[in-house]
Amino acid sequence: MTDTDTAPSSGHRRPGDPMIRLERVSKQYPGQASPAVHEIDLDIPDGEIVMFVGPSGCGKTTLMKMINRLIEPSSGRIILDGEDVTSVNPDQLRRRIGYVIQQIGLFPHMTIAQNIALVPKMVGWDKGRVEARVDELLELVGLDAAMFRARYPKQLSGGQRQRIGVARALAVDPPVMLMDEPFGAIDPITRERLQNEFLRLQQDIRKTIVFVTHDIDEALKMGDRIVILEEGSHIAQYDTPEHILSNPANDYVADFIGQGASLKRLNLARVRDVELMQWPTLAATSSRDEVASALQASELGSVLLLDDERRPVQWVDARDLDRGVALEEAGLGPDAIVQLQATLQDALDEMLSSSHGVAVVVDGDGAYLGAVDFATVATAVSAMRREARDDAVAAAGQLASGDEARV
């Protein structure tokens, strides 16, 4: 469902123009000697995730909040979809922009359906349309509508509440979303899963997203582009994750990235980008003799059993067969499972804690697609290192050519 008929008409954005343009935007608080944000010029492309990252106090949250005028700029212009929105009604502006924060901000006395329905009701949707949109959004963020629409926020886990926050921000299909440390207060495992789920969702919704984080690894994983801010709200570098890792603009950026650039590049490659290895698989209803034959025919040492819907059930190896217990009681459950949108860093983390040193790859329904092992990751790292060296040589050549031209 697309609800663009509820939004105010856009300006005159031409093909290729950015969805958001900041022109010399500044924020000066009374009584402070230095501005919180100083004359920022920035173009944010349509349909991309742009990460704002930097140390505390660098102005990244202030800069983001000026886009929807939760903080009013002291000077400069904000262009949204071709329209100067610096002086339009701020409430009307915010209905065109989804907003997700770390604290989520769900109303505890309202059900999940009522929380999601807030903005659609404010813009005058009828009851049937609101209810259909609520159900659609719950399914979109991976929550069963029948199960969750009547629950209250206190009945949900932190990860589920964060999904509801995203659903509420998408309620009237805004072209732009602002996300302020949305996964910062969640445990690392849930955070990783939500990051991957949101990247999958973005493939479908293609929103223009400004995402504030203090975590460079999250910025590298989530962003199509990254704005690295330094003290005084100066932009140290605005570029793609690949170029920032390969060619940091200065020592500040290099220090901010930190050590281990090669490993950080694993956040740039997705499981879908590599060739999956195929592990021996059998139906979970197979006999012990069938499992023994599959083990003899393979050099990998174990067989992965799948249920009727091809979802991984358990690993079985020769030692499990020798134990003499029923096959369904033998072996270990698959403890490292990733989807195609997961990064190779995610897959490596899963492998390091797994019993078999391999990450099983599944589709959105949990059905087996293949596997990723350490050799796959090592091959990807080698390829990325070669690409980084080639990029560095090319950048050095361009710099030398520019110096010669100036001479």
Radius of gyration: 25 Å
How would you characterize the largest beta sheet? 6 strands, mixed
The chain-level structural class is alpha/beta
> Separation of termini?
58 Å
Number of strands: 16
Number of helices: 16
Low-pLDDT parts are 1-9
- The fraction of residues assigned to DSSP E strands is 15-25%
**Shape designation:** globular
Spatial sequence of strands, sheet with the most strands: 6-7-8-3-9-10
Residue share in helices?
Answer: 25-40%
Average pLDDT for all residues: 87
Question: Summary?
Answer:
The chain is of the alpha/beta class and 407 residues long. The protein has helices at 60-67, 90-94, 112-116, 118-122, 127-140, 145-148, 158-169, 188-205, 216-222, 241-246, 251-257, 261-264, 288-297, 318-322, 344-352, 374-406; strands at 20-27, 37-44, 49-53, 75-80, 83-84, 97-101, 176-180, 208-213, 225-230, 234-239, 281-283, 302-306, 312-317, 337-339, 358-362, 368-373. The chain starts with 19 loop residues before the first strand and ends with a helix.
